[in-house]
Amino acid sequence: MQIKLETMFNSRNLLLGKRKYVLGLLLLSLICLICAAFSSEDSDDFNFARREVLLRKIGHEILLQSGDSISRVLPVKKIAENEYLIRFESDFTFQPDSLMSTTSRFLDEAPFAGNYIVNVLNCSDSSVAYGYAISKNKKDNIVACSGRKQPKACYTISIKFKPTGINIVKNGYLLGGLSFLGFLGFILLKPFKSKKSLSKNGHSDIITIGSGLFDTINKKLVVNENTIDLTGTETRLLLIFALSPNEIVEKSRIQKEIWEDEGVIVGRSLDMFISKLRKKLEFDPNIKIVVVRGKGYKLEISVV
Which of 247, 250, 243, 190 is nearest to 216 (CA)? Predict the structure, then answer.
């Protein structure tokens, strides 16, 4: 018998050790993923700064081609993922051919550019005054009439880049990794939590209370084939009393086990729940919940 107990004890310790090891590995993996995510954000900030410098140079060249060497190119604005807006202090005119040549000269060789769409927008209503799409595969380029000089007006220039495969894969790995860790953690922790709850409570699903049966799983009282439904709070409250019949249950313990352990502390009136539970226990005159002043409550079950 002693050898059997020692074997069971060692097996339990081994299981707990493995569980701690797996949980530790999960935590380490989660930390690595978080670090990778922050590193990715830092890289994105750096790439945005590089793009901003390059886009400002494009804006500068466009103003020079318009004969303007004085007015400023306003700060580049990121308006969406991989989409940026070049803004100008003054009105200008542009030649579509020159605009395409300028953007091509700066963007075609940029490692982060690849495929992109350029739209010249009217400041007044954001309508497209001119636009074109450039692809690494030249036959996929979309270019409108390029020989018509545009009138001098207030314009902004939107440049949208196609996301690179590296970013898509990187984000996919991060999301996939977090999802996998979350699922694995749920699978590992759920049985652990269930076992802990079972060992702590140590009760069956059906408990006899006086002449009735208390179904803790389905939240019901069954008395002479009649069913009384219980709320979740009433079920937890009655379970505390049912596991400690004819014993004083302190109010602080009830509040902790019902609400604080759920992670929420609310100003509910415990007396209100006790009153509602009393009414549902009226089926048996030998059962009653009494108040023990200054201490708590007690489920008194009289032996007939």
Answer: 243
CA distances to 52, 158, 244 from 78, rounded to whole Å, are 9, 10, 63
- Any idea what DSSP says for residue 190? H
Burial class of residue 230 (count of CB atoms within 10 Å of its CB; 0-12, 13-18, 19+): buried
DSSP strands (E only) in 1-82: 73-80
Cβ(118)–Cβ(157) under 8 Å?
Answer: yes
The amino acid at 7: T
Q: Determine contact, residues 115/161, Cβ cutoff 8 Å.
A: yes
Alpha carbon distance 194, 28 (integer Å): 24
Q: Residues 37-55, buried b or exposed e (16+ Cβ, 10 A)?
A: beeeeeeeeeeeeebbebb
Mode of pairing for the β-strands spanning 248-250 and 206-209: unpaired
Angle at 66 between CA 53 and CA 161, to 5 degrees: 40
Give pLDDT tens digits for 198-235.
334 455 678 888 888 888 888 888 887 788 888 888 88
Instruction: Quick: pLDDT tens for 52-86.
Output: 888 899 999 999 998 998 999 999 998 888 889 99
